[in-house]
Amino acid sequence: MDHERLQGFLYDMLLARAFEERAAQEYTQGHIAGFLHLYPGEEAVAVGSIRAAEPSDYIVSTYREHVHALIRDIEPKKIMAELYGKSTGVSRGMGGSMHLFDKERRFMGGYAIVGETFPIAAGIGYSILYRHLPEVVLCYFGDGAVNQGTFHESLNMAALWKLPVLFICENNHYQIGTEIHRHSAVVDVYKRAASYAIPAEQVDGMDVEQVYAHTHSALDRIRAGGGPYLLEFQTYRYRGHSMADPGAYRPPAEVRAFGGQDPILLATRELARHNPPSKSAQASDPAMDVIQQHIDKGFAAGHWQQEDVATMKAQIQQILDEAVAFAQSSPSLSMDDAVYLANQNHAHEVLF
Amino acid sequence: MAVMSYLEAIRETLRQEMRHDQRIIIYGEDVGVRGGVFRVTEGLQKEFGEDRVIDSPLAEAAIIGTAIGAAVNGLRPVPEIQFADFIFPAFNQIVQEAARIRYRSNGEFGVPLVIRAPFGGGVHGALYHSQSVEAFFAHVPGLKVVIPSTPYDAKGLLAAAIQDEDPVLYFEHKAAYRSIKGEVPEERYIIPIGKADLKRPGKDLSIITYGLMVSYAQKAAETLEKEGISVEILDLRSIRPLDVEMILETAKRTGKVLIVHEDNLTGGIGGEVSALIAEHALFDLDAPIMRLAGPDVPAMPYSPPLEHAFMVTSDKITEAARKLAKF
Q1: Contact at CB, A153 and B59, closer than 8 angstroms
Q2: Where do runs of H (alpha helix) occur along B205-261?
Q3: What are the b/e assignments for A122-141, b being 16+ CB within 10 Å?
Q4: Which of B62, B73, B141 lies nearest to residue A119, judging by beta carbons?
Q5: Mutation target among B51, B108, B146 for the A interface, most CBs of A within 10 A
Q6: Which of A30, A192, A200, B262 stands 20 to 30 A from B252 (CA)?
Q7: Three-class secondary structure of residue B141 per DSSP
Q8: pTM
Q9: Would the CB atoms of B65 and A150 count as touching at under 8 Å?
Q10: Please, where in chain B does CATH 3.40.50.970 lie?
Q11: Is the reported ipTM for this assembly greater than 0.90?
């Protein structure tokens, strides 16, 4: 994979991680209210898959969608302002964290009701098919969503009508606090697609290069008229379900193993940097932080130096400082905004 | 002017609008090859092809969900729910998404969607083929709900619904499909959503109603006229938004109001209409507002005598109006 693309992935993942950590900080300080679901640990999925898509493709996302929006190149400051509930937010402060929309970038929304998105994505797929366009809908969902009836209804329709939809499961193994073995009879999500004759694969979602490659070939196949496809990315979220959830239901050893926080693992990683593993070791190491892993691979292959990473981090820090300043200085919504929005749905209604 | 049945008016409007606008697609269970269980969409697949008139799997949540997706991306889907009773699996999609996407997307995405569904009883359909479901949806800001009473209105309201930029539920009384006939102009026209229709002027009392009950009320008014009671009839046509102005006008004009619907009494549209009158026209009234509605029982009985007892009829309207006139 070329140097520039790998650097791009690194930048994207660093931005994603830093944005989310900054959002957590703002939340803790009381600047962001409500429910905030963060993405650390899963960055490789959004970055690899969205960068494999064309700008003309559509994205339908979940309530954990800040990073999808960021990687779709929605300005960080507009997302931050939305989290703040300000009028300069990407959804004018009406949606907040879980309901980002951007028509221009074909970001068709974050949805906070699990399973609601499957038919909506299929319907957008139908509108593409109807116009014979080479576009695809990327429909993101978690492992918890596949037990909703709409998953099955929509996969059936998508397969029946050969809709251009790429179903992307971000399998982080937890339906909030319920581990996948306790919520699903079949824990390999990709196997469920077989019931509808939809081709599917299980892919290491901690390895951004693999995510990119598999998404790219799936999209090619869909664009060539092959009908829907399902990719299950095995991933892990390092934080709890939301800021209100410390995630105490997970064994600490499991979190450490996935988060790369264990000092012994850090030391081993340092060793590995000097003695790179053989090329045959393909799978990502779950015990290593997903971004650190990408950084280390880049070091080993000579794609970047320590100072390149430091420069990127500094740039990102500045972008986020500006985003927060923008959000803080932006106006809150007024009743004029409320009336404007309400009137759109009340064109003929007489209100007393 | 051609005389058509209520059902034919709906079908011909679908045909006319589809000829006019390539973005309109129809789908639902059995709407294509079979032409719908009531034959409303008969012949449309033949004329417009399988990619515009689509037989869908039996999956209401996905029928409405995919229609929302197609609508936000530029099509104008007119899905059919085979019976209004089957709409509940899609309730989530309608209430959470269709009704709210415009509001929460800062107006970026509209959902120009028309959900057609036959409703109502009196056809021995019992529990799952007789329900009136309009009040559930009339409660939801972001939705519009229309119920035509005549073939003329069926055409104008359906065209308006299809041309609307936001989601509209269009309920068709299945007992009206073939029993109600009327003149329908050939040319395209719309009846604005939210405008009621004064069906009959009168002096002694007002009946406010909609759908199939309009023709029952007209029959009752004719009977009462012979007894010297002059009845005014207001057909709401849209139950969300309500035509508040016309509701208040008729209430003030006659001073006596009888609200009639087949849907059961508690939480029905009658409550909203009577609240509006009580709030804004109480001192113009000469009698308490009266409501005549389906009974608060869990389901339409299959037993013919009990079904008859459930249904609002012309006789029941006549009796209630007579009582109100005497107050």
Answers
A1: yes
A2: 212-226, 244-254
A3: bbbbbbbbbeeeebbbbbbb
A4: B62
A5: B108
A6: B262
A7: coil
A8: 0.88
A9: yes
A10: 2-184
A11: no
Q: Are B213 and B261 in contact (CB under 8 A)?
A: yes
| Distance, CA of B52 to CA of B75 (rounded, Å) | 11
pLDDT per position as a tens digit, B250-279: 999 999 999 999 999 999 999 999 999 999
Q: How buried is residue A29: exposed, middle or buried, by Cβ count under 10 Å (0-12/13-18/19+)?
A: exposed
Q: What is the DSSP letter of A226?
A: I
Residues counted in chain A: 352
Interface contact flag, A123 B242, Cβ < 8 Å? no
Superfamily of domain B2-184: Thiamin diphosphate (ThDP)-binding fold, Pyr/PP domains (3.40.50.970)
CA distances from A74 to A67, A89, A135, B29 (A): 10, 11, 20, 39
DSSP E strand stretches across chain A? 58-61, 107-110, 137-142, 165-171, 174-175, 178-179, 200-204, 229-234
Residue type, A97: S
Q: Which fold has domain B197-325?
A: Rossmann fold (3.40.50)
- Catalytic residue list of B: 129
Domain with CATH 3.40.50.920 in chain B: 197-325
**DSSP letters spanning A108-125:** EEE-SSTTTHHHHHHHHH
Kindly write down the DSSP assignment for every residue of B26-71, as one continuous string: EEETT-SSS--TTSTTTTHHHHH-TTTEEEPPS-HHHHHHHHHHHH
pLDDT tens across B84-143, in order? 999 999 999 999 999 999 988 888 899 999 999 999 998 888 888 999 999 999 999 999
